[in-house]
Amino acid sequence: MYICIFVKMDQIHIYTDGACTGNPGVGGYGIVMEWVGKPYKKEFSEGYQLTTNNRMELLAVIKALEKIKVSGLQITVFSDSKYVVDAVNQDWISGWKKRYFAKVKNPDLWRRFITLYDRFHPKMVWIKGHNGHPQNERCDQLAVAASQQKKLLPDAGYQPDSDGLF
C-alpha cells in the first residue's frame, strides 16, 4: 500500500519591473509581492540617479528576494525582462560563474542575485510588458514614479562600458 501526502507550500508571487529614462539615465524599479491565497500584498520602489534599464530589471528581483525572511516558500518571479528570465531559464548563469563573470555586464548584481537564487530557488516566468497585465502595469508605474523622485539614490555598482557608449 502506498500513501501519498501532499504538502501545500505557501506561495509568493513576485512581480517586478525596471525603468530608465535614457539608457543610461535616471532609473527606478517597482515590485509587487503577493502571498497567494492570503490578503497580503506589498509594493516597493526606489529611484536611482544614473543606471541602466537592465540593472533596474535585475535589481528589482534582487530587492524583492531580499525582503523574504522565511525559507520553505514556493516563489515565482514574474518579469518582463528577457535579460533576467533567460539568464536563469537558459542557464547562462552557469557559464558566467565558470568564467568568473568575465565580459558579463552587471556582475555585482548577478553575484547578489545568485546568492538569493541559490537560497530560494524561485521559478522565473517571463510576461510580456505593457500588455495589460495588472501587476506588471503596476510595477511599471512604481518604477517610473521612483525614477522621477527628487531624491534619487546613487547606483554604486553602475560602471559605464570602457568605450564610454553606455
Write the layout of secondary structure elements.
Layout: E1 11-22, E2 25-35, E3 40-51, H1 53-67, E4 74-79, H2 82-89, H3 92-98, H4 107-120, E5 123-126, H5 134-147
Parallel strand pairs: 1-4, 4-5
Antiparallel strand pairs: 1-2, 2-3
Helix pairs in contact: 1-4
Quick synopsis:
This protein has 166 residues and is of the alpha/beta class.
Textual characterization of the structure:
By secondary structure, the protein is an alpha/beta fold. It has one domain (11-147): Nucleotidyltransferase, domain 5 (2-Layer Sandwich). Helices cover 35% and strands 27% of the residues. Helix 1 (53-67) packs parallel to helix 4 (107-120). Mean pLDDT is 91; it is low at 162-166.
Say which CATH homologous superfamily is assigned: Ribonuclease H-like superfamily/Ribonuclease H
- Indicate the proportion of strand residues: 25-35%
The CATH class label is Alpha Beta
Query: Termini distance?
Result: 64 Å
Main-sheet strand order equals: 3-2-1-4-5
Quote the average pLDDT.
91
Number of domains as seen in the coordinates: 1
Sum up the structure in keywords.
disordered C terminus, single chain, five-stranded mixed sheet, Nucleotidyltransferase, domain 5, 166 residues
